[in-house]
Design goal:
Layout lengths: L1 E11 L4 H11 L3 E10 L2 E11 L5 H14 L2 E7 L13 E10 L4 H11 L3 E10 L6 E10 L5 H15 L1 E7 L6
Antiparallel strand pairs: 1-3, 1-4, 2-3, 5-7, 5-8, 6-7
């Protein structure tokens, strides 16, 4: 029986972080099942879902990551997760959509869009934002992947987006993602 863990690593970006973390996991006989890694400004962040043999605890990783953490100034955390929490079904229970938001940078854009989605029980499955220098003011961009329940009326959602666009002086577009069934 396998055990599952979520590992996060955060630190100043530099070459060798992915190699260092993956070497520790390889040496421990761990399988990396899912991962997401990115650089935000000068900070690197990774989150991994890993599996290993029964009998391993989160504390077993501590000593193995200590040297790497000290060497690369990383904050690394390990948390056990139950096998039933590891999703092996299709990633969406509804329909996958992508939402693009662009506008003058200002506080509240993420909150207001996320709150609207939450009020409709729409789950955010991925979200990326960037501030891009503009000629006069910075431009804020956000790309969101969402899981829209089948009962949500997209036309009504677009109407609510339109109200939010006017209120916050942003542009929002939504389109369905075509999912290939294998």
């Amino acid at each position: 029986m396998r055990k599952f863990f979520v590992i996060t690593a955060i630190g100043k970006d530099r070459p060798g972080i992915v190699a260092g973390v993956s070497k520790v996991l390889f040496d421990l006989g761990v399988n990396i099942e899912d991962s997401s890694m990115t650089i935000l400004r000068s900070e690197f962040a990774m989150i991994l879902i890993i599996s290993t043999e029964e009998g391993v605890d989160a504390s077993d990783f501590e000593s193995h990551f200590r040297e790497l953490s000290d060497k690369l100034s990383l904050f690394i955390s390990v948390k056990g997760i139950e096998e039933r929490e590891v999703c092996s079904k299709k990633p969406y229970s509804g329909m996958p959509y992508i939402i693009s938001v662009i506008g003058t940078d200002k506080p509240g854009i993420v909150y207001r869009v996320a709150q609207l989605l939450s009020s409709k029980k729409i789950n955010i499955t991925d979200l990326n934002t960037k501030v891009v220098p503009g000629e006069r003011t910075p431009v804020y961009t956000m790309i969101i992947e969402v899981d829209v329940p089948e009962y949500v009326d997209i036309a009504l959602l677009e109407e609510e987006f339109s109200l939010l666009e006017k209120e916050m002086a942003i542009d929002i577009s939504i389109r369905e993602i075509e999912v290939l069934e294998l």
